[in-house]
Amino acid sequence: MKIIIGIIISVIIAIIAYNKKSLNRSGMITAILLGSLIFVLGGIIPFMLMLVFFISSSIISKIGKIKKRNLDKIHEKGDERDFIQVIANGGIALICVLLFQITKDPKFLIASAVSFAASNSDTWASELGVLSKGKTISIITGKRIEKGVSGGVSLLGTLSALLGSTVIGLSYTISYIITLGYDKNIIKILLLIILLGFLGSIVDSVLGVTIQGHYIDESSGDVTEKKVNGDRKNRLISGYRFINNDMVNILSNLIVTAIFVLIL
């Protein structure tokens, strides 16, 4: 019965997202599988966090959509998440709930919350930071860079990252209290989820500017994350060709989630 409930809810949410063009076909199928497994292995709390992440990030991505059109020349992928992007944002959380099922150690359930907090923090920073009217600078050099380029930070993006992480932290806390009752360590856990989720966005920016592949589209002179323009390869100017934004998302998420497991 539990798996049927998880599948039904996951199917409904994924189909709505597909119809709203937040997911493509492969992303929809992967989201159904991911959601169902998280519900069965982890229960209602990580499943609710997944829904909060996915619904809030989908809504956020639609804000300022007209202003974001010029980012198509920079970003490798469009608004519709594919299966790799779904895995990049939810795969580490799935591993956490699997470890919870194997070990019965509740720290892995909290680790899944940290993972979703990192994903939400990074998504909110990326989607809202590009709308900033202030300057965007490289997190490493402090020099001004074009909005939307990985590794760039702005005041609006930074505040959005913190807010995105806080939303997941509060969602975990409320879900935990409703489901299991108040715990004396709940405030400590809330702060850890918020801080490590926010750190995930920072780590993502650092990796984005240091190891993610950045290219020059020699037909336009634009810096881009796209490896090719049509049938022509763009020239690599920094980072590694095999590391794209999806890989950076997975690595940053894994790093902060592992930090939580090690320190708790």
UniProtKB/TrEMBL annotation:
Main location: membrane
Entry annotated with the keyword Ribonucleoprotein: no
Top-rank taxon: Bacteria
Stated family: Belongs to the TMEM19 family.
Protein name: DUF92 domain-containing protein
InterPro entries in alphabetical order: DUF92_TMEM19
Transmembrane segments: 27-60, 83-102, 152-174, 186-207, 242-263
Compartments it resides in: Membrane
Membrane topology, from the record: Multi-pass membrane protein
Protein keywords: Membrane, Transmembrane, Transmembrane helix
Pfam families, sorted: DUF92
Coiled coil, from the record: none
